[in-house]
Amino acid sequence: HPTLKQTFADRARTAAHPLTRYLFRLMDLKASNLCLSADVTTARELLTLADKVGPSIVVLKTHYDLISGWDYNPQTGTGAKLAALARKHGFLIFEDRKFVDIGKTVQMQYTAGTARIIEWAHITNANIDAGKDMVRALAEAATKWKERIHYEVKTSVTVGTPVSDRFDDSDAQEQAQTRQRDDVDGRKGSIVSITTVTQSFEPADSPRLTKSHHDQGDDAVFPGIEEAPMDRGLLLLAQMSSKGCLMTREYTQACVEAAREHKGFVMGYVSQEALNSAPDDTFIHMTPGCKLPPPGEEENGQVEGDGLGQQYNTPSRLITICGTDIIIVGRGIIEAADPPSEAERYRRRGWKAYLGRLA
Ligand code: S5P
């Protein structure tokens, strides 16, 4: 398929979903096709890890429900702090929620409840075993959310007052955000993680995307990286890495069909191989079950599993042979003696494999 030979920079121009285009730009700018699966046990560790590894990654994947001490406050809690780190370093947040239920239930789980995933996670994912309508339900929820944000931003009287998004300055942030949120039509608690965007909110694809985060006075690590568009995206869980996975070829094909039916919301897949096959497919693929052999050991494509069903392939095999775009790495990085330098090792390997695929 053509996307296997296209550069990420080219795909940043052609992908159907605005957030996917943004993600490809991040990948090109940071020379990274690495997603960290931040499966640590406490919110404090999660934020520290995100800040340290942020420069090497383009996506940070979370499982909010395995984190203890997750602070659900929409303005100052863990989600908002992650969102600030995402802006600082230039990465997207992917809550690996694997929604699977009837449409109405997943809408509520996505937008409401304790975690209010839609407010802080740019991306989430779904297992479509319950049927394709669930994808439409999530898409509708995302559209409604975007309309609401648009409305709230328009009615915000404090437009032009950027809020500090330094997470170590949470008192000032809380005050500023409380002021701002109270100003918005009495809808307390509904602005959440996008307060810093209010000054420049316009529909996706507007020229503001060229204004660098750096110019806005934040200590961005990668100058030239602009704010993410206010869109939400879904990945379909099309194939899994685990031994004995019951997802059939028909199920995977149903994911491909659902993706094509919802190009404005589905960014792509969590899969074990590239699934683009129609000429105009522009989906992105992210692949977990990825590990490098320890430094010094020879790489032969596979690495021993974890004894609990997880199976591992190396970055080069996944990217060059299986054709994935982004490798998702958890314990390979987290359990290393120095996670930031191990993340750099994965980033370099992943990028080299991508360049090799183009050649
Ligand atoms: O097929 C899959 C899909 C996912 S999202 N296999 C997976 O392992 N995952 C997730 O990726 C899993 O839930 C975990 O968060 C991560 C892999 O972690 P690792 O420590 O094995 O790299």
TrEMBL record:
<comment type="pathway">
    <text>Pyrimidine metabolism; UMP biosynthesis via de novo pathway; UMP from orotate: step 2/2.</text>
</comment>
<feature type="domain" description="Orotidine 5'-phosphate decarboxylase">
    <location>
        <begin position="33"/>
        <end position="346"/>
    </location>
</feature>
<feature type="compositionally biased region" description="Basic and acidic residues">
    <location>
        <begin position="179"/>
        <end position="188"/>
    </location>
</feature>
<feature type="active site" description="For OMPdecase activity">
    <location>
        <position position="98"/>
    </location>
</feature>
<dbReference type="InterPro" id="IPR018089">
    <property type="entry name" value="OMPdecase_AS"/>
</dbReference>
<dbReference type="InterPro" id="IPR001754">
    <property type="entry name" value="OMPdeCOase_dom"/>
</dbReference>
<keyword id="KW-0456">Lyase</keyword>
<keyword id="KW-0665">Pyrimidine biosynthesis</keyword>
<dbReference type="InterPro" id="IPR013785">
    <property type="entry name" value="Aldolase_TIM"/>
</dbReference>
<dbReference type="InterPro" id="IPR014732">
    <property type="entry name" value="OMPdecase"/>
</dbReference>
<feature type="binding site">
    <location>
        <position position="61"/>
    </location>
    <ligand>
        <name>substrate</name>
    </ligand>
</feature>
<dbReference type="GO" id="GO:0006207">
    <property type="term" value="P:'de novo' pyrimidine nucleobase biosynthetic process"/>
</dbReference>
<feature type="binding site">
    <location>
        <position position="241"/>
    </location>
    <ligand>
        <name>substrate</name>
    </ligand>
</feature>
<feature type="active site" description="For OMPdecase activity">
    <location>
        <position position="96"/>
    </location>
</feature>
<protein>
    <recommendedName>
        <fullName>Orotidine 5'-phosphate decarboxylase</fullName>
        <ecNumber>4.1.1.23</ecNumber>
    </recommendedName>
</protein>
<feature type="binding site">
    <location>
        <position position="39"/>
    </location>
    <ligand>
        <name>substrate</name>
    </ligand>
</feature>
<feature type="binding site">
    <location>
        <position position="310"/>
    </location>
    <ligand>
        <name>substrate</name>
    </ligand>
</feature>
<feature type="region of interest" description="Disordered">
    <location>
        <begin position="162"/>
        <end position="189"/>
    </location>
</feature>
<dbReference type="GO" id="GO:0044205">
    <property type="term" value="P:'de novo' UMP biosynthetic process"/>
</dbReference>
<feature type="binding site">
    <location>
        <position position="331"/>
    </location>
    <ligand>
        <name>substrate</name>
    </ligand>
</feature>
<comment type="similarity">
    <text>Belongs to the OMP decarboxylase family.</text>
</comment>
<dbReference type="GO" id="GO:0004590">
    <property type="term" value="F:orotidine-5'-phosphate decarboxylase activity"/>
</dbReference>
<dbReference type="Pfam" id="PF00215">
    <property type="entry name" value="OMPdecase"/>
</dbReference>
<keyword id="KW-0210">Decarboxylase</keyword>
<dbReference type="GO" id="GO:0005829">
    <property type="term" value="C:cytosol"/>
</dbReference>
<feature type="active site" description="For OMPdecase activity">
    <location>
        <position position="101"/>
    </location>
</feature>
<feature type="binding site">
    <location>
        <position position="330"/>
    </location>
    <ligand>
        <name>substrate</name>
    </ligand>
</feature>
<dbReference type="InterPro" id="IPR011060">
    <property type="entry name" value="RibuloseP-bd_barrel"/>
</dbReference>
